[in-house]
UniProtKB/TrEMBL annotation:
Its EC number is 3.2.1.8. It catalyses: Endohydrolysis of (1->4)-beta-D-xylosidic linkages in xylans. Residues 52-373 form the GH10 domain. GO terms for biological process: xylan catabolic process. Belongs to the glycosyl hydrolase 10 (cellulase F) family. This is Beta-xylanase. The keyword rRNA-binding does not apply. Keywords: Carbohydrate metabolism, Glycosidase, Hydrolase, Polysaccharide degradation, Signal, Xylan degradation. It comes from Alkalicaulis satelles. SMART domains: Glyco_10 (SM00633). The keyword tRNA-binding does not apply. It comes from the Bacteria.
Amino acid sequence: MLTRRQTLALGAGGLAALGAPGFALGRDEDRGPSLHALAQAKGMRFGSAVGVSPPGTISGAFHDPQYRQLLIDECGVLVHENELKWYVARPDAETFDFERADMIMDFAEENGMEMRGHTLLWHHTDWFPDWINNHDFGSRPGTEAERMLTEHVRTMVERYKGRIYSWDVVNETIDEAGRFRQTPLSRHLGEEVIDLAFHIAREADPAAELLYNDYMNWEAGYERQQEGVLRLLERLKARGAPIDGLGVQGHIGSGNYDYSTGFDTAREDTWRQFLDDVVGLDLSLSVTEFDVHDKNLPADIEIRDRKVAELGRRYLDLMFSYPQTKDLLVWGMADQYSWYQEHWVREDGVAKRPTPYDENFQPKPLRQAIADALIAAEPRP
Ligand code: G3I
C-alpha cells in the first residue's frame, strides 16, 4: 500500500506505470487538489495543529475520525497543539510523558506526513509547570537551571531525532511591550537561556530546522512586540545562536482584547518592514499557527466567512511574497475544535469560524482563499 506521500512523489505517470488504481493524488473529486498538493507544487508544505486532549474537548480533535480523515485529505505536516509543551509532557521533574504526543507522531508517520515540534521552551511563567516556578535551584542556581533545561531539550529532541524536521525551540518570550519575559530560568541564566535551548537542540539533532516562534502580529498595536522580537533575533545571531528562522504564528483578525476597532486593523507597511528586517538577518519565515479571528465581525455566516477569507488571502499573499516562506500550518482545520471557541467569546455568543472547514467538515471560503494563495505563489527557490 503506497503511503499518500509516496503517491504524491510518484505523480500520475508513476502511478500509471505501477498500474495502481486511480489512487488519491491528494485530490478529491469536488475539491480538486489537496492544500498540501498545491503547496508541494511550489516547494512548500501545508499542514495543521491537532490536539489529543480528552475526547469531546476543544483541544481533543484527534479523537474525531472525521477530523483525522480531514488531516489525511489536506495535510502533509502536523504539529502537536499541546502535547510537547513542558507543562503537558513533564508532569514532574522526574517524568517525561510522551504517550499523547506519540499518538500524533505515529498517526503522521502512518499517513506519510511530516511533523513540526511545538515547543521546547515556552519561555513564559504562565506556561511553566508549577514545579519549575516553585523549584529550589539550590546554592548553584545557574548550574541547576542549565542542567534542567539541557536535560529537557536534549531528551525531547533526541526522542524525535529524524522524525521532527523543524522545532519551535523557543515560543513567545517577547511581550507586547517588546520586553523579554523573565522566568526562573532566565533569572539564573539571563537571556542566554534562549541561546542555550538553541545550542542543545542543534547538538541533539543537527538536521532539524530551529525556529523562534511568536505572535507579533501585523495589526495596529503590535509594533513594539515586532521591534522586541527583531532585537532579540539580532542579539541571538550576534551571539552565534544556531537559529534558522522565525515562526510567524499568524493568528490574524479582530482585536483579541475586546478592541472595538473592528476586524481589519492590519498595518501592512510596518509589517513588511519587520519581515524585511528579519529576512535581512538571513532567517527563514514559517507561518506556524494561521487562523482568522472573527470576533468583531457580524454574526451573519455568509458575511463573516467572506471577510475572513478576504483577510486571510491578503495575509497569505503578503507572506508568500517572501520566498523565505516555505511552510503554512493552520492552528486547526475545523471550527468546532478551534482554541478561539474558548477565548474572547463573542458578545452574541455565536460560535466562531476561524478555520478552513466548518463544524460539518465542509470547506469554507477560507479554504478556497488558502488554495488560491498557494496557486498564486511563486515556486520557492
Ligand atoms: O488538559 C487539561 C484538562 O485536563 C483540564 O480539565 C482543563 C481544565 O481547564 O485544562 C486542560 O488543559 C488545557 C490545555 O489547553 C489542553 O492541553 C488548558 O486549560 C488550556 O488553557 C490549553 O490551551 C492551549 C493553549 O495553547 C495553552 O497551552 C490551547 O489548546 C492551544 O490551542 C494554545 O495554543 C497556543 C500555542 O501553543 C502558542 N501560540 C498561541 C496558541 C493559541 O493560544
